[in-house]
Amino acid sequence: MNIQKGDLILTSTPSMMYEHMRQAMGVRYDHLAVAIDQDSIIHISPPKVRIVQSNVFLMKKRSPLILRVNTSLENKELFVEQMLKHLGHDYDYGRATTMIFSLLCDRSIFRSENSNKSQALEYLIDPGTI
Q1: How many Å apart are CA 89 and CA 125, to the nearest integer?
Q2: Rg (the chain; Cα; Å)
Q3: Is-contact 83 34, C-beta < 8 A?
Q4: pLDDT digits (tens, 9 = 90+) for 56-96
């Protein structure tokens, strides 16, 4: 799977505990990561924000969904730079959510270069096809 800097990666942890948690919460995914490059991601999860190898998150059994934000490389680099500042810090759901929404809410993200249609994300991988 081809990931790029700034891609958001959602995964489902293959364990009974996480399966029950997802069912109780009515969600499909339980982990979020941000791509630094093809090989490394920022794992945004308790207990601490850390870097892990991307192949851990991209395993078929985790049903990864890769979302590519439709923005400039400069915006993606700034976003990843900001996320890297949190390495080693305690996980903070509110802070992580705020940073991701700030990236998605940048007005330039919602304009496709070829049209006036709103398009915040390109769905790169359909988990049903993996």
Answers
A1: 30
A2: 15
A3: yes
A4: 889 999 989 898 888 888 888 888 888 888 888 887 777 77
What's the distance, Cα to Cα, between the start and end of the chain in Å?
Answer: 10
Cis link prior to 64 (omega < 30° from 0)?
no
DSSP label at 26?
A: T
| Chain centre distance of CA 25 | 19
Give 8's contacts (C-beta < 8 A, 6+ positions apart). Answer: 32, 33, 34, 35, 66, 67, 68, 69, 100
Phi-psi region of 66 (alpha: psi -120 to 50; beta: other; left: phi over 0): beta
Residue type at 17 in one-letter notation? M
Let me know how long the chain is: 130
Kindly state the greatest CA–CA separation across the chain. 45
Measured from the Cβ of residue 93, the count of other Cβ atoms closer than 10 Å reads 11
By the 8 A CB rule, do 67 and 8 touch?
Answer: yes
Following CA atoms 113, 115, 116, 117 in sequence, which dihedral angle do they give, to the nearest 10 degrees? Answer: -100
For the entire predicted model, the pTM comes to: 0.71
